[in-house]
Known about the structure:
Elements: H1 9-30, E1 36-38, E2 49-51, H2 52-68, E3 73-76, E4 90-97, H3 99-103, E5 110-117, E6 120-128, E7 133-138, E8 143-145, E9 148-149, E10 162-165, H4 168-173, H5 177-186, E11 189-191, H6 196-204, E12 210-213, H7 218-229, E13 234-237, E14 251-254, H8 259-266
Parallel strand pairs: 3-4, 10-11, 10-12
Antiparallel strand pairs: 1-2, 4-5, 5-6, 6-7, 7-8, 8-9, 12-14, 13-14
Helix pairs in contact: 1-2, 6-7
Amino acid sequence: MFPNLVSSPYLVFLSKVLVEAGKELLRLRDSGSIRVYSKSKLENNFNQEYTDHDTKVQDFVIQRIRNTYPDHNICSEELKSNDFKPKSTNWILDPIDGTINYIRDFDRYSISLAYWQNGSTKAAGVFAPYSNRLYLAEEGKGSFLNGKKLKCSRDTEKLSSIILSSGLKSFQHANEDSKFYKLLDHFQNTRIFSSSVLDICDVASARCEARVLADAKIWDLAAASLILKESGGRVTNWQGVNDKYFSSAKIIASNGFIHASLISLLND
């Protein structure tokens, strides 16, 4: 979509697949028929729903990956077996991040796809089809929104910073109820939009200063974290450890300038 900005064949591939999958998702949405399912409590999910559109978009993307890279491993939210292999080559997919928003026709959802190799995400993309917003990032080469280079905000003040957060249920699931209320108490502008991928992309776009996650999964982080880091931001676990965030459910993704304040707050 923006060939002058990308050099990796994997980024070219995923940007094309994301746009195609976004068109397919809009076509499904326009069909007027959505089947909604609840995930089993045995899957360690809480209050989670998914739709037949999640699985159809997932199948759409997976088929294109397998046609082009048949030997690569695929990790996706709606697969029965999510066998992420950190030492192998992986494609990490979230077919619809913000599914409940999608079900309710609240236009804050996206498709996320990342290419992982040699222990880190090398190329990443997030596409919000309803607004035609395509975020792209390549390791060491910056991140972009529809061709415009992204840079985080430099705000360090609690009163002016906008903090995005997981909902109370996520904090309760992580046995961290008190931390949710601390965020509300210490940061005047705390918001919950229920789309972790787009929230992190909003930090990268300087629309806000941080996103706090209490129950993150790898498909929430794989693409969005590279987009944020390539815009100058920082992603760690709640203790501030950089190389542990992929193995932790408790995540801070920020502009970097507000990061220390959040670490202190969440560990007090």
